[in-house]
Amino acid sequence: MSSEVKKLIHKYMPDSPMSRFGKIFTDSTEFMSIDYSDVMKLGNEHFLVLKNEQERRFGLVDPKYWVKRVKHLESGQSQILKLAFYETFPMHIGPFEIKCYRSPRKEARILDLVKGDMRFMQGYSKDDTAGNNVRVLDIIRGKRLDVVVDDIPVDHKTYFHEYFPDILEKFINACEAISFLHSHDEKHGDIRRDHLWVESGTGAYRWIDFDYAFELYENPFALDIFGLKSILVYLVGKANLTMQTLLELRTENSILNTLNAGDYSVVIGNRVVNVKKIYNYIPNSLNNILMHLSSSSSVFYESVDEILVDMNKSLKEIRSL
């Protein structure tokens, strides 16, 4: 089999320095067996596997063996293959437990829906010979939004007045993209700040990873809404404002002593969402949006469009300061 791979490499990549040639796979069911120098064949297309992608969260590196960085041999383009991987797990929001699961075909539907809409990652899907849905994704060159925000080398007050208005405006556009999904009865399913990327060159905000789904019949879009609000809290605070973070920022004890249980997130209990208590120059119109995520709130947003109305009003106020 390696001789077939060798012929493919020499045909499409004659200057390649590769000395190891793997196997050709047409069935991706055993995705952990597919590794560097192997070729995944989908129809008449061939994808040379270069490495497994990794996810970095909480200071840890977690290999994603079902996500492969590849070279599309026919075009020479670097791409990502997401192979079919199924898992089910519970998510807790306050007292509620929500069943979440991966759905490759749900992600494939969204890729078709958002084709040409550069607010989202782009790609297409094909089935392998075993019927597994494989998504072929274009690579977004850029950085995660939270990394971009964290790297802005200024104090919070300067950040809020000089950088945040433009960030909020672009985030509003990203929220409109999620509203577009909802209007077509689709949900992102895994809205986190590391799933919103800032594209190099264009500065565009682009959503990635749509394969999570969840069962929540009372409001099928609730997790997406919670995710958007959690990102907004991060953007306003320029950090996850936990007690540890506040101590590292040398926040005055007179401020810390005012915090109570109602100032923290109902989703992630150690994160402060009443950011105005920390930075008193934040306008009420913005802080009120954040407080919808607090454990003390009895009213929650029912749709992304409701958040958009309040964010647009607040943006006008912030730009007039």
TrEMBL record:
Q: Which InterPro entries match?
A: Kinase-like_dom_sf
Specify the protein name: Serine/threonine protein kinase
Natural source organism:
Desulfobacter postgatei 2ac9
Q: What is the lineage of its organism?
A: Bacteria, Pseudomonadati, Thermodesulfobacteriota, Desulfobacteria, Desulfobacterales
